[in-house]
Specification:
This protein has 14 helices and nine strands. The protein is α+β, with helices and mostly antiparallel strands and about 375 residues long. The chain has three domains: about 120 residues, Butyryl-Coa Dehydrogenase, subunit A, domain 1 (Orthogonal Bundle); about 100 residues, Butyryl-CoA Dehydrogenase, subunit A, domain 2; about 150 residues, Butyryl-CoA Dehydrogenase, subunit A, domain 3. The longest helix is centred in the middle third of the chain and has 37 residues.
Length: about 375
Amino acid sequence: MIGTMNPELKPFEELAASFAEKELAKNIEEHDRYPFGELFTDVIEKAFSVGLLGVTLPEDLGGIGQGISTLCLILERISQVDSSPSGIIFTNTLSQELMIASGSRDLLRETLSGANTAYDFLIAACSFSNPAEIQHMPVAQKRGSAYHLTGNLDYVVLGGIASHALVPAYRADRSRYSFFLVDLSDTGIEKSGAVFSLGLHACPAVDMVFDGAKARLVGEEGKGPTYFADVSKKMHIAAAAMSTGIMKGSFKEALSYSKDRFQGGCAIINWSEVSMILANMAVKLNVGELCVAQACQALEQSTHDWQHHCTAAALHVHELACDAVTDGVQVLGGNGYMKDYGQEKRFRDARQVQALLGIAPLKKISLIRDISGFEELCG
């Protein structure tokens, strides 16, 4: 729907569709075996070579300088096939946007200059957390003009493959956190093996231990919550685009299967129960696409309360996706639980994506409170 509303984005839609078809479609099950199998390093390098790791990054910093609509369109198209690469693109974009929002363009330029491989270009982040809710966070100590981090940080996405990481850390008084850029080759950083997750298996994460690791302050000290709040508003809708893509992939699989599967003398799409499930999936998908498209439009036009539109849309789309992929499994019956059909992967991925930026079902009340008028309505 985003592409329909803005025909100028057609080349990016075609790029994402071609990437998904050529690099992902034939090996989805194999890619999903990570960390027990090999990571698709060739796919990550291809994503880097065609510019997918710098969609919103300004051109002078090595990106392609596009807006949120382009990012959402790309994430949606890729997630139809396999959402793990979308998770990598999302996390790297989050790191880039946080550094830009903090006024650290020069540091970002220095970090990315001379990047010859995808791994030089990747910046890890805790993309499945709101830093304010992380229970265990490193402490930053300033020694002269330098900072050093000590402590633990769990589930750092891309931490095992990226060259740098954007790390939230408390000040010594543990009052407000700041963001720090660390070089992951530092000897003061210990990484775990890849952490096995519910979904997005090929979007790898590790736990980290910092023992006096050198770090560079990103933006101003203590301003981490401000930077995260500013960036997460628009990144919520990018996560929702991933959910929409997962929904679309699930619907297409269910529709195709129902046409090919014959039982009781006819294709099961002719069964009223199956037809109703498919119709409900189609409605959820259309609503999800509309929510993402309108939120993108509100953001790019800076309409009144666009932040609340993005948050509300993301909450709603994630729930729609979790419902829709459950329906998608049911249409295939027992085959819906088999890896080679892809529905069980979409079922897992939808719930993993729902947790991006800390939007998990038990946490969403704090986000809802940010929506204009909620507190007044509740008294």
